[in-house]
């Protein structure tokens, strides 16, 4: 008999926490960690935000779940608010990011099907992408470590090099339905798709009559200092998948689309039991109460710039630790010289939590409510960690 009753799919860090408070996670013995992981960009308003707690507890005493057999006023309200704050006309609520992506992929395929072009089902994605762990989204992400051993890859995904416009256009065939792209790759290593590339992808989609799908599961809901990261480029997407930050810790996601893009999604073709239930909607609406407040996202952008500047100064001081600083707003990261997991360990020794990513990157994803003092504190802890790493590596020389 193995020791744990759980699947062995996670290499967990041996740390546990009893409670959270804003940007802090607290252990049973009172030890406090500064949380610049935020549950992988999920705890957008930090831990135990009073407005979120009140929304959840208030709803919990009234109604949890009724299914989508009935009307759910909180869904109408949250859908309307998301659409009013974005490019979108239509919303479909899910429980996770991968399901929001599944809905985006199905929306694109149905769009062409409904127009009588059912052969258009293929979707172009970019190297380094991460779109989730369902069978379709591991095929979309195209990373062998995620799809190997899970049988035939779901058909219909073509991958090109990161941001390679020539390769993208060359990959478009009469079977292509859409291009799917993260404006900022998260798991891929905080790789920002340049604004001019996003604009060129929009033009390519228009030229070939295909849809532009964005994966903003990590970059959306204020994370980069705009409601959606694509807003920095000025483009209008056709479909956007959202999750992580929208629930602030409650599992939920949403697929947003223009009326035109969603035109094939007619009654009966798609559905979910849990998606958009009253509990999730109460929490999602509470997140928007704060994120859509006047000036909130400007503050995120300002704090992001502050953190990035201070990080860049640390990179100058410790070139043997930090190779490059990347990202926008509070979706930041740095590429490491040593193995990123070693750097993560040194940060943990200073009681600072971060998230590893591809391309040997460490991600910094604090709650959007992080204070400037907490940013200074994180920088001081990174300074200590980088000093320790530098001293140890020079001793080894
Ligand atoms: C986390 C993530 C997903 C998958 O979301 P899940 O909720 O884990 O299914 C998809 N795309 C991006 C960009 C993500 O960061």
Notes on the structure:
Its EC number is 2.6.1.11. It comes from Nitratireductor basaltis. Pathway: Amino-acid biosynthesis; L-arginine biosynthesis; N(2)-acetyl-L-ornithine from L-glutamate: step 4/4. Keywords: Amino-acid biosynthesis, Aminotransferase, Arginine biosynthesis, Cytoplasm, Pyridoxal phosphate, Transferase. Pfam families: Aminotran_3. It is a single chain. This protein is an alpha/beta fold and 397 residues long. The chain folds into two domains: 50-291, Type I PLP-dependent aspartate aminotransferase-like (Major domain) (Aspartate Aminotransferase, domain 2); 302-363, Alpha-Beta Complex (Aspartate Aminotransferase, domain 1). It is built from twelve helices and 17 strands. The strands form four sheets. The protein has a seven-stranded mixed sheet with strand order 4-12-11-10-7-5-6, sandwiched between helices. Strands 1-2-3-15 form a four-stranded mixed sheet. Helix 10 (296-317) runs parallel beside helix 12 (372-396). The longest helix has 25 residues, at 372-396. The mean pLDDT is 97. The structure holds pyridoxal-5'-phosphate.
């Amino acid at each position: 008999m193995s020791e744990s009753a759980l699947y062995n799919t996670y290499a967990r860090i041996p740390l546990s926490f009893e409670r959270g408070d804003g940007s802090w996670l607290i252990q049973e013995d009172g030890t406090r960690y500064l949380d610049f992981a935020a549950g992988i960009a999920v705890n957008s308003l930090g831990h135990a935000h009073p407005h979120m707690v009140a929304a959840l507890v208030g709803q919990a005493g009234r109604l949890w779940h009724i299914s989508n057999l009935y009307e759910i006023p909180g869904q109408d309200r949250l859908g309307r608010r998301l659409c009013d704050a974005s490019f979108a006309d239509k919303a479909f609520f899910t429980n996770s990011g991968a399901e929001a992506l599944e809905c985006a992929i199905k929306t694109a395929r149905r769009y062409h099907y409904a127009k009588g072009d059912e052969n258009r089902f293929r979707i172009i994605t970019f190297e380094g992408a991460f779109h989730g762990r369902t069978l379709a989204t591991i095929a979309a992400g195209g990373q062998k470590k995620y799809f190997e051993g899970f049988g035939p890859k779901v058909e219909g995904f073509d991958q090109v090099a990161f941001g390679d416009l020539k390769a993208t256009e060359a990959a478009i065939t009469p079977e292509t339905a859409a291009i799917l792209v993260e404006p900022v790759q998260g798991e891929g290593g905080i790789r920002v798709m340049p604004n001019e590339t996003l604009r060129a992808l929009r033009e390519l989609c228009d030229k070939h009559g295909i849809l532009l799908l964005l994966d903003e599961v990590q970059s959306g809901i204020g994370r980069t200092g705009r409601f959606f990261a694509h807003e920095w480029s000025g483009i209008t997407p056709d479909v956007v998948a959202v999750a992580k930050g929208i629930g602030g810790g409650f599992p939920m996601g949403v697929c947003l689309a223009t009326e035109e893009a969603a035109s094939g999604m007619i009654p009966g073709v798609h559905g979910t039991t849990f998606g958009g239930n009253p509990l999730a909607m109460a929490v999602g609406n509470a997140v928007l109460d704060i994120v859509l407040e006047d000036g909130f996202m400007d503050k995120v952008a300002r704090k992001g710039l502050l953190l990035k500047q201070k990080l860049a100064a640390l990179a100058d001081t410790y070139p043997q630790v930090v190779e490059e600083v990347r990202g926008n707003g509070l979706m930041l990261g740095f590429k490491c010289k040593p193995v990123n997991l070693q750097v993560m360990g040194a940060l943990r020794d200073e009681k600072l939590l971060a998230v590893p990513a591809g391309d040997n990157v460490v991600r910094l994803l604090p709650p959007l409510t992080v204070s400037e003092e907490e940013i200074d504190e994180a920088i001081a802890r990174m300074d200590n960690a980088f000093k320790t790493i530098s001293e140890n590596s020079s001793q080894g020389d």
